[in-house]
Amino acid sequence: MAMPPLSAIGIENYRSVHKLFMRVGAVNVFVGNNGVGKTNLYKSLELLQQAALGRITRAVSEEGGVDSVMWAGDLKTHEKKRIILRADLGDLSYRIELGLPNPISDPALPFETMVRDEELTLLTGKKPVVLMQRKGPSAFLRSSKGGKVTYDNELLPSETALASIRDGSQFPELDLVRRAITDWRFYHTFRSDRDSLLRRPSPNVTTPTLSSDGSDLAAVFATLKEIQKDTFFLQQAVDDAFPDSKLIIEANGQDCRFALQTPEIRRPFPSQELSDGTLQYLALLGAMLSYRLPSFIALNEPEASLHPDLLEPLAKVIAKASERSQIWLVTHSEQLADHIANHAGAYPRRIYKENGQTGIDGLKITGEFVGEEY
């Protein structure tokens, strides 16, 4: 079954985001200055994936705990002091609430981040149909036959029902949402120092998708060469950025390696000798042009360390990747955003902060943007 695309996200009370609901398109580009909350939008998506992996409470604790990442502004009397995240995937909507335990009644460690509520809803029809609802340690689910299955006192406060209940035959929608979200891939700025994993050979293993740290970049290139037997778009992107240059790819039975052949120098430059910017660009090519792309790719300031001349070639690669994957990108660079608009037709959204609260220009309360219909 095909992975459903991310169609909307909702964020409440997470860092600088008080309340935000937004429809999501094929290519989503967000531009803003430092400190306006771009990264908080990106991290909220990462937390949703951690929910699917069963690690969301640990991830929040690693950020300092609920009190550290909770919206610090005023709450209205009816608003809960909870972090609430929502992802709509096609006609399915997953929602999770995180909070602190009641020291008297909740079986949790003191001040532990805990899952308070979860819900999976089918949005088609005249009114939503609840397929899974979790309150504290208990959850009920609607099975594929329409019956109700109850899990009483089986979930710890650190666990999510989304990750813990794994019965795809009884609960196919829950299984589909979990698989769709775990398939997402997040790429921060890759390390490019002397000890960077990008500079090392990769194990000689067919690798269809680049890992988040880029450690298997050479194997991703080798997979395109040896398995797909087509490096046209990869070599085109290299030549676009470094005219008349070519990527040399080797799989020797023990490991995979790559080097860059430029017109100025007779011998190719191995990965250990490449500049930081060149290596960053090649890693982004691995992420965007690999044999198999994930259903959703999030990029956090990919322009870091890149020369301005590389921004348009990168935008072309992102546009090419959007033919096979949904793209989410946050950037400081107006130039990169403009190039993506030209090549992918994606209008950049400007993020701002007002009175400590992150907002997006033109975003309506319905989740649509002014002048657009979904």
TrEMBL record:
<dbReference type="GO" id="GO:0016887">
    <property type="term" value="F:ATP hydrolysis activity"/>
</dbReference>
<dbReference type="Pfam" id="PF13304">
    <property type="entry name" value="AAA_21"/>
</dbReference>
<dbReference type="InterPro" id="IPR014555">
    <property type="entry name" value="RecF-like"/>
</dbReference>
<dbReference type="InterPro" id="IPR003959">
    <property type="entry name" value="ATPase_AAA_core"/>
</dbReference>
<dbReference type="GO" id="GO:0000731">
    <property type="term" value="P:DNA synthesis involved in DNA repair"/>
</dbReference>
<protein>
    <submittedName>
        <fullName>Predicted ATPase</fullName>
    </submittedName>
</protein>
<dbReference type="GO" id="GO:0005524">
    <property type="term" value="F:ATP binding"/>
</dbReference>
<dbReference type="InterPro" id="IPR027417">
    <property type="entry name" value="P-loop_NTPase"/>
</dbReference>
<feature type="domain" description="ATPase AAA-type core">
    <location>
        <begin position="27"/>
        <end position="337"/>
    </location>
</feature>
<dbReference type="GO" id="GO:0006302">
    <property type="term" value="P:double-strand break repair"/>
</dbReference>
